[in-house]
Structure formats: structure tokens, C-alpha cells
Amino acid sequence: MHGFAQALGNFGDPGIWLWIVFGILWGIVFSVIPGIGPLEAMALFLAFAFGMNPMYALATMVALNSVGATGGSITAILMGVPGETPNVATVYDGFPMTKKGQGARALGAALTASAMGGAAPVFLALGMVVVLVPLVLALTSMDMVFVILIGLSFIVVLGKGSMIKGLISGGLGLLLAAVGLSPTSGLTRFTFGSDFLYDGLHIVPVFLGLFAVPAIVELALKGGGGTIAKTQGVAVSIRDVSKGALDVFRHWRLWLRSSLIGYVVGVTPGIGASSGAFIAYAEAKRRSKHPELFGTGVVEGVIAPESANNAVMSGSLLTTLAVGVPGSAGGALILGAIMVLGLVPGPTMIREHLALSLTMLMIVAVANIIGAGICFGLVPQLAKIAIIPGRILVPLVLCLIYVGALAYEGQFLDMVAMLVLGAVGVVFQHFGYNSAALVLGFVLGELFEKYLFIGLQLAGPLFFLRPISLVLILILISLFAWGPVERELRRRLRRGRAA
Amino acid sequence: MRRPSGSAWVLIAIMVAMLAAMADLLTYQSFATKVMPLAVSGTIFVLAAIQLWREMRTKTGRKPAGRESGIESDTPARGRRLLAVAAWMVGFALAVYLVGFYIASFLLVLSYMKRHGSKWPAAILSAVLSTAAFYLVFDVALKATVHRGVVSIF
Hints:
In chain A, strand 1 (180-181) and strand 2 form a beta hairpin. Chain A has helices at 2-10, 14-32, 38-49, 54-66, 68-79, 88-99, 103-137, 141-158, 163-177, 203-223, 238-250, 252-267, 272-287, 300-323, 329-340, 347-352, 354-385, 390-409, 412-430, 435-459, 467-498, and strands at 180-181, 188-189. Chain A has 499 residues and is mainly alpha-helical. In chain A, 76% of the residues lie in helices and 1% in strands. With 154 residues, chain B is mainly alpha-helical. Residues 65-72 of chain B have low confidence and may be disordered. At the A-B interface, helix 9, helix 10, helix 18, helix 19 and helix 20 of A face helix 1, helix 2, helix 3, helix 4 and helix 5 of B.
């Protein structure tokens, strides 16, 4: 209770509100631009977060991450161009509503569903903290080795594309984290005599290279000459927007169900907001009395994905904070920020900074509500961002990315590292590797090595012979075994039916 | 066996890099320094070899699994556009190295806009305004240490 009171007390500081609003605005502007989004905005902000008050820096990062899917719904509905991948499902009914002259109503529904879908699950997450804290505090360094492996495996197994390529990506991330001074022996590795690599690769150039560079390359390939959005926005009347907002209350069961789906998807590492939105959309269609109308412009088709994609953030943040294993790429960036600010994620964070952790969860709710409010007020202006010609947008965003890498430590070589990793990111994207797994491996690499070494030192090679570790190993095995076992069972079932 | 695809070449490059990493790690004396990276690089090597074997014997392995946002299959036109974007990015990096970030950003905005069909006044105005904004935000407000270039006095 003391932690909760302290967390609430943090909101008495006006500074935190300023940074939350800054994060929301920064996040919304980036999320409106199709192709780049909150991940790139977070990586850029991280360049300037070093040395900041940890509470302000984390408040900004969390606010920014929370509203990523909110801003993206504006262009998805008005222009048929999803600002972010979690908004893709919104296009199916949002854009047809605009074509039918109900764009403002769809926007009202989307923004209200986003605000409520993002805010309400926070209470669930706060409730779960009470249950999770004793469990998390029971984990030792030996168990943490397997917790990290489970986190990486979730992203690999449940993520898109080949499982082997996902594992290779995660492994490469662990290897990138091994560059520089070894945390266990103090000796250097893979530095090739360079002073620049002595401290290892810096987190910001890695993030910018793997997320922002491929995004800007894609943006330049798509919209170099013309505009990114193909249609102009529509007039938005407050009356229609209010009608859409009321739709969410009329369909409160749908909103609640979709938010819960989003929350559960968020708690599970690796599934992501896009999948959460699609699952909620499919479930809404399945349960609807008129499923045939989905895709033609029904408001339920907007409420379901928009409630779910924002709810994912609350669940994802809980896993990131409590266990130290992020549920998504956004979570990995927040974890990176926690480390850049000198804090240790996972059980140590919960033990030593419980109030800060709870404050971050509460910020998700606050940011979702304020973010939706800002979007309501600025819809026409925000929609115009997506019709800025690519010839203006591309060089400006490129400059921002470069200055982010340059300003982090003031070293030119950080920019070179960003470009090299950017090339890796483009190749990864093209050949179906998993950049999120690589980033996760990179962020967790040092901790993984430390925990592994402590385990070996304390209990030798059989350090995993502990009840909790064995349970975690079982989860790990079942995670990889589930797919092949399920396929085999289905094959046998089909064979049995045929016989 | 089929001719190696782009994906296969990436896997071969990963395997070569892992072999080099393992060779380097084996020269280290300290067990603590090499145990984790050695285990990881060995695992990656094996996984890459399995994936390569699968791709070489199946037809589907030849197709790149690009992301849903629009990476289509390899086309010469796309390759050329990609090279052009890479040239812009490397050129900008070189300009930053030589003349510093602020002058380079002015040159980038001006040349990119002009190259993509903007008129001179619009390109010059955008370049001046954006450079001024970058200078005010990063240099004046945030006091960020941004590379000034090896031949720049700005």
C-alpha cells in the first residue's frame, strides 16, 4: 500500500505532467506518419534521456509508447493508411465508414475505445502487481537465466516468420551485447583494438539502426516524390464525433471483451499489438449478429481493434517491469531506457523502485486518456501530417535520426554504427528475420551473462536443479514442443477421421 | 541442390561471421570471458546451417519473407531505388563527417527536395528553416554535442 501511495504522490509533481504531455505529443505526431512510429520516436528520445531524472524520462517513454496506436487510427480511418501496424485492422471498417460519410463517428469511436481500452486494463495490471511481486521476488539469479530465455523464446515462437531465423536473431542480439568489457571477467571482447567498442555498442545507435533506418528507407522507397497518403482528410464535426464516442458505451461488452483480449495478448511476450487487434476484430465478428457487415463500415469493427491495441500496452508494460522481460519491441525500448538511466530491470526494479514501477503503470492510463483528448482536439491538423510530401518528410526524419545517434554520446562513430546496423535491419526486414528478438537479445545480453555466471559460480554446471528453475525449463521446452505436437495431433485426428 | 538465393547468402555470411567469432573467442584465456559468446555463436552457427540446408532443398526457401508493409520480391527497379536511398544516407553521413551536422542537414534538405521536384525557393526556404530549427532545438535548448565536421568552422 505504501508503494501505491508513493506512486500516486508522484503525480503531485508538475514536472511529470509536462513530460507526459510532451511524450504524448511526440508519440502522436510520429504515429500519424505512416511508416514510422512510436518505436522510432522512443529510440530518438532515448538519445537525450541519459542524465535526465529517471522518473521524467520513463514517464515520457511510457506516455509515448502508450499513445502509439491512438494517433495511427486517425489516418487509418480518414485516409485508409494505418499510421501503425496495430491500426491495420481498424482500416477494414474505419475507412469504409469514412467513404459512407461517417468518418467523424468512426474517429469518435476509435479515440474513445483507445482511451478506455488503454486506461481500464491498468487497474487489472495494478491488481496483478500485488500477486506478482512475491512471485518475482522469489526468483534467484539462477532462475533469471531461464526467465530471460523464456522471454526471448516467446518472441521467437509467437513472432512472425521462421522460428529458426527468430532464434538466430535473438542469438545475434546476445552476441552484440557481448561486445566490449565482459561483465564477469573485466576483459574485452570483439573490440578489434578500438576504443569506441571498449564500452560495447551504445543502445541508442542500435535501436535507431534496427528500427528507424529500415523505416526511413521504406518511407523513401514509397513516398519519395508524392505524398504518403493517397486521399485527403474529411471534415470532422463534433456532433458526429460524440455520436461515435457514445457508440463505445452502447457496445460496452464488446469494448470490455476486446480490452481483455488486448491485455492478455500484452502480458504474453512476443504476440504484439497488431495480433491483439486482429484477434479482437475476429472475435467481434464471430460474436456479432451481423458478421456479414464487417468490412463494409460498421462501428463495432472500429471499437474492437482500437480497444485491444491500446490494452496491449498495459499488459506488455507489466511483464517488462515485473519480470524484466519485455513483451514487445516497445517494451524492449523501455527496458533499454531503464538500463540507460542506471536502474536494473526485473525483480531488483520491483524491490527497490516499486513506487516508480507503479507510477509507470498509472501513466499508461493517464497518457491514454490525455492522448485521446488531444487527438479529439487536433484531428484536422494531425491528419495533415500524413499528406506532407515525402520529399519534405524524408530528409527531415533522416536528419532527426542522425542527430539522435550523434547526440547520444557526442561520437561520430555512433552514427557509423547506426548505419551498419541499419543495413543489418534492412536485410533482416527483407529476409524475414526478427529485429525485435535481436533488440531483446541485445538489451538482455549483459544480464543473461551475469546471471548465468553467478549460477555457475554458486552451484556449478547443475545450477538449474532447483524447483523454480525446473518449472521454467519445462515451460521453455513446452513452448518449443507445442507447435510440432499440435501439428502431429491434428495430423492423427485427420487420419482418424479419414479412416 | 539449387543456386544459392539471397537468403542463403545471408545465412552463409552469418555462418562465416560465427566461425570468425568462435576462432577469436578460442584465443581468450579466461573461461568467464568466452563461455557465453562461445555457446551463443556455436548455437547460431548450427541454426544457420540447418536453415541453409532447409532453404537449399526446398523451393519456398528461395522466397524472401519480407514484412507485410510492402517488401515485395526482388526487382531490379526496387534494387536501384534501394541503392539510391543508400547513396543518400551514406552521402549525408560523409557530409556530416566533413562539414558537420548543421551544414550537412541544410545541404540534404535542399538537394533532396530539389532532386524530387521542389522549386528552388521552396527547397531553400525549407532547408534554412529546418536547419535553424535543428540548431535551436539541439544546440541551444538541449546543448547536445553534435559533430561539427573536420573542415567546418561552424
